């Protein structure tokens, strides 16, 4: 059994006699050392872990922020590049950059999900709207409308999208470009639903677009209502012009003038801003557009009155209204239109007089006025004055394309084709799609024999005005000039598609096929020509001769019968007409036709022979004998005529020979060829002419001992 005292802790039993030390007195504890707390290993590891995780999270956030910033920067650069390319007229590059922005957008979405930053999806949604709108706009600019509509429809279904009215406007514009005007109106109306009361300008824009769609549908009543609503929300010159246009179609002159007056009272930004300022340039562009629309509206209002007695009063009314505004360019343009209105009423002198007054009053209009004067003188065929005024116009504005065209026309009229061609080329260099310059350039090149260049010019022109018959005709003519007959036919067929009822075109194509040896195609073309012009004698004769050659006498008879009605005195046609009846065995009818031909031309031996032949066949012997006598008389008469003509011909030849001999002897030496130029010693005898008192030459002697050189002629009988 153990024995001993109890320990100081009270619970511990003393088991040995070793001295016992006190922990508390030694200042020792399991968790304390010299009064300093000893950290736990687990706590230390936990602290280090937290610190590491915090640092890792910070690095992750920094990486996310940098990546996000980099991607957003790339998106911004791509959108800016796409917008710039669109402004510069490069649709393919604009679409390429927009697609790059879409790739960066997908990368942005992947980055957000990768870093578990779903709370930043609002940033993605904002960027997504910008990128997708840019991509859809690029597709629209490249005329890839279906792709654009798919993008807009997805954006329209997004409930978080606050710009649905803008999307509906874009969809409506696409349908306008596709000529689906009813669908466009429907989406413009959808867009109005999303607009609040404080969005007056946007409402005006939607109403304006709807009005334009109704004009395309020729529904001017609804168009006028839409433009009226647009003017209520936000009055603009552009909407006012289209309202005047609708009134000119539907309303009275008073209503149209009222709309025009309201248009002139619209307040616009007329502050003067420096040219270098971008805003200033925009204001200048807006001012020019307003002047253009006001000028057009003024012409519509003034030209509405068709009465020859009061038409000038309408122009005076509009002129007074315009002079009260600040649209000086529109005023000048209208005054020129006022002068040209005299041309419509065949008052050329007054037109010229008014244009000259405008030129004296305002030199800023010198180029435009001189161009119009040049054009008037061209119409009057006064090419000298036309050229003079075109040169004045070019002195004030060397880039005046109509003046260059007028000058080139004057030069071409003077057959100065090289200089005229240079004028037209200069005009095209300024305005590449100038139709007048291109057409005249093609004509001048054709006159110079430059058929390939002329063909290239007309081919470019056909792309600008694909339904112009003049251009297609000139293309075909150029090919004909270079000998390409088959290509000529192809281009004439294009022309037929434009003018399918022109008989002269069918006739030309028929002749071309005949030249190629294809009579079947020629028959089709001549038949079409006859269908639209049955009085063309050349076509009727060709069809009759064709059927006569192919033994289709019934058809030939019809054509020659029509030809005889057109040319009633043409005995040859009647002979062919009678031949058709003869080949059909209708001898009596053929005889009647031949006799009719004989009465028109009683000296036609072929006709008389046919009458004799048929009379013998059908037993009309008395008639046969009569025409035999007639034939003999005609033959005798023709023989006597031939003998008389032969005698006259011989006498004339003899007289010509004698006259030529005399002329060779007595003619002016300057007219005689220099036949003695290689002879060194040429002896010229002295000629002595002996005369009687009546001044008739009897003898001509060379030197004193020479023989009379005219001894073989009875000179007194023919030379005095």
UniProtKB/TrEMBL annotation:
It comes from the Eukaryota. One of its GO terms (biological process) is non-motile cilium assembly. InterPro entries: TPR-like_helical_dom_sf (IPR011990), TPR_rpt (IPR019734). GO terms for cellular component: centriole; ciliary basal body; ciliary base; non-motile cilium. Keywords: TPR repeat. SMART domains: TPR (SM00028). Pfam families: ANAPC3, TPR_8. The keyword Cytoplasm does not apply. TPR repeats lie at residues 204-237, 435-468, 503-536. One of its GO terms (molecular function) is kinesin binding. This is Intraflagellar transport protein 88 like protein. It comes from Tritrichomonas foetus. The lineage of its organism: Eukaryota, Metamonada, Parabasalia, Tritrichomonadida, Tritrichomonadidae.
């Amino acid at each position: 059994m153990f024995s001993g005292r109890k320990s100081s802790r009270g619970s511990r039993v003393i088991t040995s006699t070793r001295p016992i030390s006190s922990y508390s007195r030694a200042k020792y504890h399991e968790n304390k050392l010299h009064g300093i707390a000893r950290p736990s290993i687990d706590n230390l590891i936990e602290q280090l872990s937290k610190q590491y995780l915090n640092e890792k999270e910070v690095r992750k956030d920094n990486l996310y922020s940098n990546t996000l910033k980099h991607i957003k920067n790339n998106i911004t650069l791509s959108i800016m590049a796409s917008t710039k390319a669109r402004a510069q007229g490069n649709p393919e590059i604009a679409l390429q950059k927009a697609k790059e922005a879409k790739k960066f957008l997908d990368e942005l979405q992947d980055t957000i999900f990768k870093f578990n930053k779903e709370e930043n999806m609002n940033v993605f949604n904002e960027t997504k709207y910008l990128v997708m709108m840019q991509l859809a706009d690029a597709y629209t600019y490249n005329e890839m409308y279906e792709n654009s509509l798919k993008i807009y429809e997805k954006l329209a279904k997004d409930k978080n999208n606050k710009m649905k009215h803008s999307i509906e406007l874009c969809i409506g514009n696409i349908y306008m470009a596709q000529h689906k005007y009813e669908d466009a109106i429907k989406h413009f109306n959808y867009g109005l639903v999303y607009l609040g009361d404080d969005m007056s300008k946007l409402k005006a824009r939607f109403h304006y677009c709807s009005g334009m769609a109704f004009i395309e549908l020729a529904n001017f009543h609804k168009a006028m209502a839409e433009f009226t609503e647009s003017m209520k929300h936000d009055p603009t010159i552009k909407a006012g012009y289209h309202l005047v246009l609708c009134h000119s179609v539907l309303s009275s002159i008073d209503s149209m003038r009222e709309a025009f007056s309201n248009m002139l009272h619209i307040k616009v930004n007329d502050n003067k801003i420096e040219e270098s300022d971008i805003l200033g340039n925009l204001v200048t562009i807006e001012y020019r557009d307003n002047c253009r629309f006001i000028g057009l509206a003024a012409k519509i209002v003034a030209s509405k009155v068709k009465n020859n007695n009061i038409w000038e009063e309408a122009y005076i009314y509009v002129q007074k209204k315009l002079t009260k505004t600040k649209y000086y360019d529109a005023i000048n343009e209208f005054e020129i239109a006022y002068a040209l209105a005299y041309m419509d009423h065949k008052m050329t002198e007054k037109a010229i007089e008014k244009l000259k007054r405008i030129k004296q009053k305002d030199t800023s209009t010198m180029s435009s006025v001189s161009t119009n004067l040049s054009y008037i003188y061209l119409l009057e065929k006064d090419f000298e004055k036309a050229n003079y005024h075109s040169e004045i116009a070019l002195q004030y504005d060397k880039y005046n394309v109509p003046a260059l065209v007028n000058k080139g026309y004057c030069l071409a009229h003077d057959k100065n084709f090289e200089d005229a061609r240079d004028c037209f080329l200069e005009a095209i260099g300024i305005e590449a799609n100038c139709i007048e310059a291109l057409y005249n350039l093609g004509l001048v090149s054709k006159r110079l024999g430059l058929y390939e260049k002329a063909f290239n010019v007309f081919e470019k022109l056909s792309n600008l005005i694909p339904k112009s018959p003049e251009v297609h005709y000139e293309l075909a003519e150029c090919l004909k000039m270079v000998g390409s007959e088959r290509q000529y036919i192809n281009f004439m067929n294009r022309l037929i598609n434009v003018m399918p009822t022109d008989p002269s075109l069918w006739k030309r194509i028929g002749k071309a096929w005949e030249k190629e040896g294809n009579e079947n195609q020629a028959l089709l073309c001549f038949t079409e020509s006859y269908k639209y012009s049955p009085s063309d004698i050349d076509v009727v004769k060709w069809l009759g001769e064709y059927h006569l050659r192919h033994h289709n006498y019934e058809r030939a008879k019809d054509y020659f019968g029509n030809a005889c009605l057109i040319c009633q005195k043409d005995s040859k046609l009647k002979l062919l007409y009678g031949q058709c009846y003869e080949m059909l065995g209708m001898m009596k009818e053929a005889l009647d036709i031949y006799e009719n031909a004989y009465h028109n031309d009683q000296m036609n031996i072929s006709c008389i022979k046919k009458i004799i032949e048929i009379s013998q066949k059908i037993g009309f012997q008395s008639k046969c004998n009569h025409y035999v006598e007639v034939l003999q008389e005609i033959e005798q008469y023709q023989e006597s005529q031939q003998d008389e003509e032969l005698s006259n011909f011989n006498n004339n030849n003899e007289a010509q020979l004698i006259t030529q001999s005399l002329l060779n002897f007595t003619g002016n030496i300057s007219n005689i060829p220099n036949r003695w130029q290689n002879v060194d010693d040429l002896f010229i005898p002295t000629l002595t002419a002996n005369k009687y008192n009546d001044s008739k030459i009897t003898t001509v002697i060379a030197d004193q001992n020479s023989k009379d050189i005219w001894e073989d002629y009875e000179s007194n009988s023919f030379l005095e």
